[in-house]
Amino acid sequence: MEHIVIIGNGISGITAARHIRKLSNKRITIISAEADHFFSRTALMYVYMGHMRWQDIKPYEDWFWKKNQLNLKKGYVESIDTDNQTLYFKEGDTLTYDKLILATGSITNTFNWEGLNLNGVQGMVTKQDLENLEKNAPNNKVCPQAVIVGGGLIGVEIAEMLKTRNIDVTMLVREPAFWENALPLPNAKIISKHIQSHGVDIRHNTQLDKILGDEKGNVHAVLTTSGEEIPCRVVGIATGVKPNISFLKNSKIETDIGVLVNRKLETNIPNIYAIGDCAQQRDPIDQRPPIEAVWYTGRMMGETVAQTICGNPIEYKPGHWFNSAKFFDIEYQTYGWVLPNGRRKNYEEQFHWKCDSNLRAITISYHKETKAFLGVNTFGIRMKHEVFDKWLSEKRSVDFVVENLKEANFDPEFFRRYEEEVRKEYLLLKQAAMTL
């Protein structure tokens, strides 16, 4: 019986395992050094915040794996002998495979700051990160102050987590507004103000120099490049993530930042595939980054590779870009491409609207010449994915999108609607442009 081995039990690896099992009776082994069972990584923050228990973020009961003949192995793969199709574990044992799927995810990205090894310095990516935060910041007596280095989705998650325990939070953001490397400046400024309204001290245009420790090896402060010392007991590193592939260093599997794959998610070695956060497309798909550290793309890759392994080879086709997140009270959605100032194409125009409360906003991106709709960012207004996906495929105009925003709205009943306000402001802008 063909043996399929999957390294990693995140959304990518587990989706691959589930779909291979649906399609075949192959022997399947899933390896993880992180946790005994698959869990929802995006829900880690809610365990710390007390909204959920650990068992609540496991999508499947513990008996699910045995019932579906999915063998689980707890262990850390130290190296791979691709010639003999053998995995070598840190614990000393080995395992052979017929086909191998690398789904090892990502780890916190750091920049060699002094003090990274101090107790209290951590990211927020793994189960172990959650356990460390619970240990180092159980309350505001043990941890009265914390510093978060960087912004983005992980940074705001850590900030929200710590604030639920009344811990003072300072966030060091090197840009002039929050997540400005991903959001247009007007959007980034809205999020900065909203985070500040929740008591987070955001220091814009500020960078970390080093992390300072006490005589016991614990964090006691950070030092910025401007020379300011900020006391703290926890330092959350939120400067992005990178593929977790260090164990492949001496293997024959080709890597760059991630594991290099083609459209079928195949590596340069026959019968070895890579999916999820650790996979890097040799040729990026459209405007998508070559590495996509996003939950839904990991799931899509898992489904794709399962089809290929089970005799129906298909290419990874993620379709139009979309994503969603939450910044404290503001829900964020994006469909298509709404690029930040530093990466905006010369043909891209953007229309910005926001309500007086700064809690709701829409940015629509479109082509200056053709007026084709390129993408949309929404803040505090829920929209339907299928509607925007359809409009992008149909290459609708920006005028059409603005006139039909009601069709895309997904807010609950009795929520105030803003489509008419958006439409009026857009028409005023359009009329002003025509008079120039």
Plain-language structure description:
With 436 residues, the chain is an alpha/beta fold. It folds into three domains: 173 residues, 3-Layer(bba) Sandwich (FAD/NAD(P)-binding domain), CATH 3.50.50.60; 119 residues, FAD/NAD(P)-binding domain (3-Layer(bba) Sandwich), CATH 3.50.50.60; 114 residues, 2-Layer Sandwich (Enolase-like, domain 1), CATH 3.30.390.30. Helix content is 25%, strand content 27%. The chain contains eleven helices and 25 strands. Strands 3-2-1-7-19 form a five-stranded parallel sheet. A hairpin with a 2-residue loop joins strand 21 and strand 22. Helix 1 packs parallel to helix 7. The longest helix has 17 residues. It is globular and about 75 Å long. The mean pLDDT is 96.
Write down the overall mean pLDDT.
96
Category by helix and strand content: alpha/beta
Largest sheet: 5 strands, parallel
Strand order of the largest sheet: 3-2-1-7-19
Count of spatially separate domains: 3
* Shape, per Cα inertia axes: globular
CATH topology of the largest domain, which one?
FAD/NAD(P)-binding domain
Q: What separation lies between the terminal Cα atoms? A: 72 Å
Query: What's the name of the CATH homologous superfamily of the largest domain?
Result: FAD/NAD(P)-binding domain
The CATH architecture term of the largest domain is: 3-Layer(bba) Sandwich
**CA gyration radius, whole angstroms:** 23 Å
Helix content: 10-25%
Please count the beta strands (DSSP E, at least 2 residues each): 25
Beta-strand portion reads 25-35%
Low-pLDDT residue intervals, each spanning 5 or more residues: none
